[in-house]
Amino acid sequence: MEDKPNIQLAVPFFMVRDMEASLDFYLNKLGFKLTNQWTPRGKIEWCWLQRESVAMMLQEERNKEKYDAQGARGTGVSICFQCEDALALYHEFTAKGVEIKEPFVGNNLWVVAFRDPDGYKLDFESPTDVEEETTYSEFRRR
After folding, report:
1. What DSSP string runs through 27-56?
2. What are phi and psi of 87, to 5 degrees?
3. Is residue 78 part of a domain?
4. Is the domain of 101 the same as that of 121?
5. Banded model confidence at residue 1, pLDDT cuts 50, 70, 90
6. Buried (b) or exposed (e) across 41-75, using 16+ Cβ within 10 A?
7. How many domains does the chain have?
8. Does residue 142 share a domain with residue 86?
9. pTM of the entire structure?
10. What is the pLDDT of residues 34-92, one digit of tens each?
11. What residue numbers bound the domain in which 59 lies?
């Protein structure tokens, strides 16, 4: 009998201030799909989002004062999405109004990095053989 792996998936779970703003960002700008939701009071308070094989969860903080008192979100943490082509996602996301600093090469990866509406750092990365620390504009000039 073959043993099935016990731990199968790690899913980022973000507490958010404004579920509507977060859903607009993740669904309409990043292309995630809403695949599960919890609506105990007639509006989404928790949800599961998915794009291709990647999932994440969002939950709106009920106590806004507690949320605000906790300070900046995502400090010291990045969610790194490993992709086939991070530069294609850079073009897709910026065309939908996502503000992204210029992509660069780090650790043999194109890095497309930005923050969501709550300050969580998102990195979309794909392998490359382009020289370390090359920016996208430098790469395009070559």
Report:
1. IIIS--EEEEEE-TTSS-SEEEEEETTEEE
2. -70, -35
3. yes
4. yes
5. low
6. eeebbebbbeeeeebbebbbbeeeeebeeeeebee
7. 2
8. yes
9. 0.88
10. 999 999 999 999 999 999 999 999 999 887 777 677 777 788 889 999 999 999 999 99
11. 9-71
